[in-house]
Amino acid sequence: MLAIRGGFGCLRLIDQLDMELFRRHPKLLVGCSDVTVLLNGLLQHAGLVSLHGPVAISLARSDEQSVISLFSLLTGNFSERIKPKGLEILRGSGMGRGRLVGGNLTSLVHLLGTPWDSRWDDCILLLEDTNEPMYRLDRMLTQLALTGRLERLAGLLLGTFDTGNNDRQASLRLQEAVWSRVMELVGPEFPVWAAFPVGHQEKNETLPIGMEAIMESGTGTLRLLPKSVATV
């Protein structure tokens, strides 16, 4: 199932889904943005791995690598090693191993305190967002920190944080501010990477939410562990 778009509405929808039915008849869901709610809900309550990747309306403007990444995971012929160009290692801390969770920051914050909330202890958390000013991003990141969600991660992947327009310089300044605030908030002893090619722009590589991975900071490589899927 490939989501047509993100937008909003998944928080309204998730309470109406029969998770036991999904468990008995698994479907592969692909999407990002607001679909983050469903990706993480299916993992926590149905034990299903989903794909955080482009939605249908964004495929036309996705770069070549993002399209290849999506279709290689859909067909099962994907590379287990992802080594993005331009990756920023904010904190190495050796290797972090855990299950991939997360996605859109705003959507994840909206799950806090609901039956669809979940802990991320020993997981690799992915965060990205678009069209949110720094004061809102700061507020959401601080809220996550105050709940303890950023203390016991296995690792943290920061994707794209952009202004929602074509002002590249403004988006770069925003990202730098996000990175700085994150490093003030996160717990110790796990790797933190930034500029990972996931988000709302043309670079949006597909990642399997629910699959274990290893962050190899020495080489800047995210190594997927497909055999871990059977243990979800």
SSE topology sketch:
Blueprint: H1 10-14, H2 19-24, E1 30-31, H3 36-46, E2 50-52, H4 64-75, E3 81-82, E4 88-91, E5 95-104, H5 105-111, E6 123-130, H6 134-146, E7 155-162, H7 168-185, E8 192-194, E9 207-209, E10 212-216, E11 221-225
Parallel strand pairs: 1-2, 5-6, 6-7, 7-8
Antiparallel strand pairs: 2-9, 3-11, 4-8, 5-10, 10-11
Structural class by secondary-structure content: alpha/beta
Q: What is the percent of helical residues?
A: 25-40%
What proportion strand?
15-25%
Number of strands: 11
Number of helices: 7
| Low-pLDDT sequence parts | none
In angstroms, what separates the terminal alpha carbons? 20 Å
Mean pLDDT: 92
- Helices and strands, in order, run as HHEHEHEEEHEHEHEEEE
Shape: globular
Largest sheet: 8 strands, mixed
Strand order of the largest sheet: 3-11-10-5-6-7-8-4
Rg to the nearest angstrom? 16 Å
Keywords:
232 residues, alpha/beta, 7 helices, 23% strand
Give structural notes.
The protein is of the alpha/beta class. Helices cover 31% and strands 23% of the residues. The chain contains 7 helices and 11 strands. It has helices at 10-14, 19-24, 36-46, 64-75, 105-111, 134-146, 168-185; strands at residues 30-31, 50-52, 81-82, 88-91, 95-104, 123-130, 155-162, 192-194, 207-209, 212-216, 221-225. The strands form 2 sheets. The protein has an 8-stranded mixed sheet with strand order 3-11-10-5-6-7-8-4. Strand 7, helix 7 and strand 8 (192-194) form a beta-alpha-beta unit. Helix 6 packs parallel to helix 7. The two termini are 20 Å apart. The relative contact order is 0.20. The mean pLDDT is 92.
